[in-house]
Each structure stands twice: as C-alpha cells, then as structure tokens.
Amino acid sequence: MDYNKIQPIIDLHTCLQGEGKLVGVPHILIRTSGCPLRCTFKDTICDTPYSSYRPENGKYSLNDIKSFVEQYPQIKYVMITGGEPTMHDQLLIELCRILKSYDLYITLETAGTYKTNAVVDLISLSPKMSNSTPKLSPSITQDTIDRHEKYRKNYKTMLHYINQYTDYQLKCVVSTPEDIREILELQTILNVPNNKVYLMPEGIEADQITSKHLWLIEYCINYGYNLCDKLHVRYFGSKRDA
C-alpha cells in the first residue's frame, strides 16, 4: 500500500475518549469517511453527517498517521471511528498494523455492518436499532431505507466480532424507554451479558444527554448495565474535532 496516497481518513486529532469503558482516557482519534447507514433518531440525525450523509473526501495518508502518532508519544490509545471504518478493510488492516508497531491500544468503533480481521484490542460495537431508521421523505428514498435496514441487522457480522475478539462492548443509542426491550432482544440474539452493555443517550447537546441520563440510571441499576456518557458532547456540543 502506498503510504503517501491520500486515504479516506477525514479526522486526525487528540481527544479524551468520551464514551464507553475507556471514558476520560487520552486518545488519538482517526475517523474514516463513508457509511452504508443513514441514521435518523428521535431528536437528531447522525452526529457526524460529514462522514455518512455527506461523506467528505480523504485528507490524510498513512505517512500522515505515522507522523502524528510520533508527535504524541505520551498517548497510548487510538480510536478508529467513522462513518464505518470497516468499509475500508485493506486500509483498516494496514492502519492497525502501523499503530501496533507503536505498541498502541486500538479501539475499533463499528456498527457491525462489515467484517474485518484487523488486529485491535477493543471492539466498540454500536449496532443501530429501529430508532435509527430514517423515514420516507423527498430526500430519503425507499431504497435508502431498505439498505439501512439490511446493514443495521447484520447479526452474523456482529457475532463475528463478539466471538473473534477478546474484548468488546455493546454500545446502544437510546432515545426512549421503549428501546430497552429491543436491547434485550438484541442481547438474546448475540448472547451478550448485561455487564457488556452500555446505554448511550441520543443527543448532540449537553442538555439532551443529561435529561436522558436521569431515567437511564434506573435501567442501569435494575439490569446491571453501564451508563455511557458523551463527554465530547457535554463539553463541546456538536463542535467538530472536540
């Protein structure tokens, strides 16, 4: 692979992990462009539409990644996110090989739409439930809806990640209390224990996160789930590169 070629990588910056089991840990964030899903939730759409609805062209090469990593030797964690990174399997495999040469801990965020055998340490599996399905409109065709439904229900691929990788978390976007029943059904399909589940409130503003946390706490206590924060949203809202 040509390390000087611009790849479909559109964000490259440092951050604190804002979600899941590594919340608060300094990371290097690498975001790829492109996603087969078109998530439209109760109050918001995809929080990174520039990587999904309107995917930007790539900005960075693999050599850019290497140079950036070398600027931050104190940071030992990397998060690869999207869009959907597994759309770019060969790039993902080579990217992870490079990152592992620096002895970095890699989290791969995926909705479970495509398989990869890239070497990573944590699979952050965020399957999209029915609360993400877009509604028919002048800008959303039935073909778009059908494609979204096909890819969001790719349970065989989700099981690939759960069974192949040592560590994973199931991070579910929750809009209303009714979503909990669907999470329980998904757990049965995937055989996921409650302590692997993170309930992540839908929202792109701090007050949306807080208002949902107030009733999500009860479900976490009653089921033994984990409450997922969104630190980047809490402190920076929908600002990019926060």
Molecular structure report:
With 242 residues, this protein is an alpha/beta fold. The chain has helices at 62-71, 89-101, 142-152, 155-164, 179-190, 206-223, 231-236, and strands spanning 6-7, 9-16, 26-32, 60-61, 77-81, 105-110, 122-125, 168-174, 197-201, 226-227.
The ordered string of helix (H) and strand (E) elements is EEEEHEHEEHHEHEHEH
The proportion of strand residues reads 15-25%
Calculate the terminal CA-CA distance, rounded to whole Å: 30 Å
Mean pLDDT: 93
Question: Which strand order does the major sheet show?
Answer: 2-3-5-6-7-8-9-10
Q: How is the biggest beta sheet arranged? A: 8 strands, mixed
Uncertain runs are none
Over all CA atoms, what is the radius of gyration?
Answer: 17 Å
Please state the structural category. Answer: alpha/beta
Number of helices: 7
Count of DSSP E strands?
A: 10
Q: What does the overall shape look like? A: globular
Query: What level of helicity do the residues show?
Result: 25-40%
What oligomeric state do these chains adopt? single chain
